[in-house]
Amino acid sequence: MSCCLVFVERNERNDKTTNALTAADQTQYNSRPLARRCFPLEVQIGPDLVENNLVVAPMAGVTDRPFRQLCKRLGAGLAVSEMIGSNPKLRETDKSKARMNHEGEVEPIVAQIAGADPSLLAEAARYNADRGAQIIDINMGCPAKKVCNVAAGSALLQDEPLVAAILDAVVAAVNVPVTLKIRTGWNIENRNAVRIARMAEAAGIAAVSVHGRTRQCAFVGAVDYDTVRDVKQAVAIPVIANGDIDGPEKARWVLDHTGADAVMIGRAAQGRPWIFREVRHFLDAGRRLPAPEVTEIRQLVLEHLADHYAFYGEIAGVRIARKHLGWYTGDLPGGEAFRGQMNRLESAVEQISAVEGYFEKLAAHGDRLVYRPKNASAAPWVQEALAA
Questions:
Q1: Model's pTM, two decimal places?
Q2: pLDDT, mean of each 10-residue run, the chain (388 residues)
């Protein structure tokens, strides 16, 4: 059986704004600072008290333990693991072992499982709960072809009887809360998120996260926040809104428009894990934090690298860290050139030295991060530094 998940309700709703769905442009959210408002500060999930309603989305190849820890340190209340396949034959692979490694992780620990067989998913839930997972999340939202081609992820939304069987099996298998991640439907003509959410509630699912696109849309096009709102209005369990939440103002707008209990942030946290503290501050105070200081981010990146090397070993750690370094610097002056240099480095010593040199130069031109326009060329000082 699952445990109950309860969000502290906020006092105010603002559903006056409407959101276009298909051909029309999406309504612009209001970016003006507001007076301090009463947003939830804590989330109760079974016996665990989560400090806020900001959730790190599960992202394959991204939300490993070092990244989850970093996001929690920087303000996320909950961080979901990379999806773990339900096939027991894959549990002993290095990739699976890394994804199930929660050693030293700040609680609560959330493990996401993926598959299409109710009995295998139930066993995967037990397996992960026995190894420290305090919340089990079922993946019915991944749009990737390699996942959908085996009838898992968002492909499951086409088969509602199978969805019901999976929900019943997993909820019955464990004594920890079970949550569900879905999309609005399989395609625009078949949006069934409301029905799936009602089925989930009836099965004992503790909360549902809804990405506001269909499987067919993948990550392209406007997000359908109205369907997320419909889901929230249809069920009593907490609803977590997901999809293109890329800043503090957008997070507040989505919470207001959908009535959701929490927001889930994914791609916007890549290279900017401090987005969680920025959003939290904006929800609490109604104004933005100043951009982070260059020296702080330099130290943060170096600590992230150290965690990577410790977690994966130097060879794999250096390789895997390259994408994070690309995200960290991609929109900063000279980020593209820096990434080109970084991809040629093979050792931790070289990688650390390059990061220190880059941020040293950046700090010489200002105390705080200043992001450049997408199409801007590298600053002259960066070109000179990389050529040296």
A1: 0.85
A2: 44 33 34 43 65 93 97 96 91 89 93 96 97 95 67 85 97 96 90 97 95 84 95 95 96 95 96 97 95 98 97 96 96 92 95 97 95 57 34
In whole angstroms, what is the distance from residue 37 CA to residue 17 CA? 18
- Structural domain boundaries enclosing 130: 5-285
Whether omega for the bond prior to residue 58 falls within 30 degrees of 0, making it cis, is no
> Is 142 annotated as catalytic?
yes
Q: What is the pLDDT of residue 127?
A: 96
Instruction: Based on the fold, state whether residues 108 and 241 are members of the same structural domain.
Output: yes
| CATH number of domain containing 191 | 3.20.20.70
Give CA–CA dist 111/8, Å, rounded: 23
Within this chain, do residues 265 and 322 fall inside the same structural domain, yes or no? no
| Per-residue model confidence (pLDDT) at position 249 | 97
Q: Helix crossing, 348-363 with 380-387: angle to 10°?
A: 150
CB 137 within 8 A of CB 113: yes
Distances (CA, A) of 370 to 65, 156, 268: 28, 43, 17
Helices (H) and strands (E) in the chain, counts: 14, 12
Q: How far is CA 386 from the centre of its chain?
A: 33
CA distance 147 to 153: 6
Structural domains counted in the chain? 2
Residue of 3, 71, 142, 148 marked active site: 142
Q: How far apart are CA 247 and CA 276, in angstroms?
A: 9
Work out the number of other CB atoms within 10 angstroms of the CB of residue 49.
12
50 - beta bridge partners?
A: 43
Choosing from 236, 267, 285, the residue where a domain stops is 285
Question: Are 262 and 315 found together in one domain?
Answer: no
Task: Report pLDDT for 179.
Answer: 95
